[in-house]
Amino acid sequence: MSYVHALSGPRNVSTALMYSFAQRPGWSVVDEPFYAAYLARTGADHPGRADVLGSQPNDPAEVWAQIAGHPQPVYLKNMAHHMDGVDLTPAAGWKHILWIRSPRKVIASFAKVVPDVQLRDVALREQLEALNQLQSMGSQYVVVDSDQLLRDPGRGFQKLCAALDLEFRPEQLSWP
């Protein structure tokens, strides 16, 4: 079983890091599979809401089932606030990455897009809750500061891959 599950907040460079895993031979990536379930559960008014709700399962149980049937190895990128209230037990045996970044930088970046930033928008509480769940399940996880990784991507990805028991692949350092 090869699942790498990334939990991030917005503006943590998580999409770029997802692209890096897409460069691993034989790997696929799944981008924010719980987004529609989050929108359905919270009623949040996000851009493209109707399209997202129509294109993904709206029930977390259906999302887990869809993921279980996905070809492996796979890298899943989730926003931590999309996972709020979602039991991570189905992912207990997976490898997890918690992408973090300075809250000051996250909020400043997010405020350029959403002027009235709320705590729930930046997923700090939800990342902590996810960390607590992972620890209580004894799951393998690594916490990575996106800014540190970007300062020296070669070394950062080597360390990340080692922490995940994966071979480092230089092709992860560039993508189309």
Please give the number of β-strands. Answer: 5
Helicity, as a percent range: 40-55%
Please state the average pLDDT score. Answer: 91
SS field, number of helical segments? 9
Give me the strand/helix succession: EHEHHHEEHHHEHH
Descriptive overview:
This protein is α/β, with parallel strands linked by helices. The chain has a single domain, classed as Rossmann fold. 44% of the residues lie in helices and 16% in strands. It has nine helices and five strands, in the order βαβαααββαααβαα. A five-stranded parallel sheet has the order 2-3-1-4-5, with helices on both faces. Helix 2 packs across helix 3 (49-55). It is globular and about 40 Å long. The two termini are 28 Å apart. The mean pLDDT is 91.
Q: What's the SSE blueprint?
A:
Elements: E1 3-8, H1 14-22, E2 28-31, H2 35-42, H3 49-55, H4 60-68, E3 74-79, E4 95-100, H5 103-111, H6 119-122, H7 124-137, E5 140-145, H8 146-151, H9 153-163
Parallel strand pairs: 1-3, 1-4, 2-3, 4-5
Helix pairs in contact: 2-3
